[in-house]
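Case 609 in the screening queue. Each case pairs one protein sequence with one candidate compound; here the compound is fructose -6-phosphate. For every case the pipeline is the same: read the inputs, emit a complex structure as tokens, and attach any notable structural observations.

Predict complex for case 609.
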Amino acid sequence: MCGIVGAVAQRDVAEILVEGLRRLEYRGYDSAGVAVINQGELSRTRRVGKVQELAQALAEMPLAGGTGIAHTRWATHGEPSERNAHPHVSHEDIAVVHNGIIENHVKLRNMLQQQGYVFSSDTDTEVICHLVHLELTRHDSLLAAVQATVKQLEGAYGTVVIDRRDSERMIVARSGSPLVIGYGLGENFVASDQLALLPVTRSFSFLEEGDVAEITRRSVTIYDVNGAQVEREIKESEVTHDAGDKGEYRHYMLKEIYEQPLALSRTLADRTANMQVLDSAFGDNASEFLKDIKHVQIIACGTSYHAGMAARYWLEQWAGVSCNVEIASEFRYRKSYMYPNSLLVTISQSGETADTLAALRLAKEMGYKATMTICNAPGSSLVRESDMAYMMKAGAEIGVASTKAFTVQLAGLMMLTAVLGRYNGMSDEMQTAMTQSLLSLPAKVEQALSLDDAIAELAEDFADKSNALFLGRGDQYPIAMEGALKLKEISYIHAEAYASGELKHGPLALIDADMPVIVVAPNNELLEKLKSNVEEVRARGGLMYVFADIDAEFESDDTMKVIPVPHCDEFMAPLIYTIPLQLLSYHVALIKGTDVDQPRNLAKSVTVE
Ligand code: F6R
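Case 609 output:
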């Protein structure tokens, strides 16, 4: 949520900052702004709308200056408007960008107003710049003033502060919202995601909770929460391709859907041997943690939660361990029961989702035997704070609607099933079958992608619909849920998913000719039951779209369009059936003309509650 970029350099930085914002736009896109210091003057440009509006404004009236900060916003406090766009300034001296929420902003605002500060926005962020301004009357350096300021802030923030009178430095602070420092030659940078800085550097260090850093052109000095100077390891970026580029694709989402065979190959590489999944896929000491596990508690949000729901079927059916799955925002605010020998697994593309992180911290307090994250972001908070990490290696996901991260999460969870199964009596044959299935995933997904043209045609039927129902059974129920989420997210069609056995307990009342029903029907032991559910819909005049195994013996007629899906085994079926549902939502959104990569009201990486 919200993207931040900052730079201290000898060259003019406005273009670097705006390019960084473009790469962060997936984090928020209701307004954007930049402020730079040039020869002792602070200049600022802000625009409502996408980063392109800001870029246009800067093309017409460029800003010079080697020290600057920039921000793309996802509104929390105050409507999207120019006056609420960042950077915020105090007395034309201090400029601040901020990601997160300052929970005690009302109290601070009142205190600052009593001191004579005049507010020009409705944001919580503006308290930060006035507080820094106030603290500078009590301290002799920007660093000290920011350190004194952050002590008064409650809530989550990643913030960058510059001072017109001291263009040599920027001060950055992290508590709850990620910040990464980028190291250049005679110039240094900061951003809320390394993606923003890939055009200018590949060397990064990640700030930890409570860190405050002073960044100049030639130095980076980091202080921990107690004010002690600390070192944070500098690493070369593992991002192997420049994900900021859409390449030949019209949208990031489509690119990422098509990248799935590659992403799956990467996630599988070096993680199996002799037809078994290696414990080391989950980190160096994973065996120690995993060998006694008897229960798994999965915590996640949104799409990642759906991956966890599918894994529950697998862990209980094949690995012989019990499993609960819960939405992070629920888990963190209730008293839950912890089973003996429990493993806590968080699933997160970004590794920074505020609710998931809070749930992990709570679980650690509760005394879970071990914690693991299935995560796509190296160096993220979830990775750093978990005992074990399955690094997804899906590559950066820019489209707000998660696609390749979901299928890679499923692959990681299947691997976890194999490994925990081995400790709990899974046969060698079963492990071999599972591993074989995993290894054939990239090719099978490639095959499933060939449905694209047929699905594009089908999508026409949905353009004038306001509702849709998705049905699945067993581990295809979470896939139906994911299909419904994708459709509503990017096409704004109201969509619900039901376990098809639930139909007659209420949702059948919704069925009529205006309600398309999408069914996922692999050829498994639930197929006959599913066919009965299909008949229930047919009898009530519903129009169905059935994604069915070529051997499942469904036939298209007036009431049913059958889309044959390549035959696949039971392990990989949920993952394969995901592909046509992703393509369907994409093509429906295209026809409806919505903003596929940046759907309204959403942001990727939800770092606020
Ligand atoms: C939907 C989507 C979201 C995320 C959710 C969790 O397409 O992307 O539902 O899955 O916000 O995000 P992560 O996985 O980053 O924790």
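Case 609 observations:
- The mean pLDDT is 93.
- Residues 301-304, 348-350, 353, 356, 401-402, 485, 489, 605-606 surround fructose -6-phosphate (CB under 6 Å).
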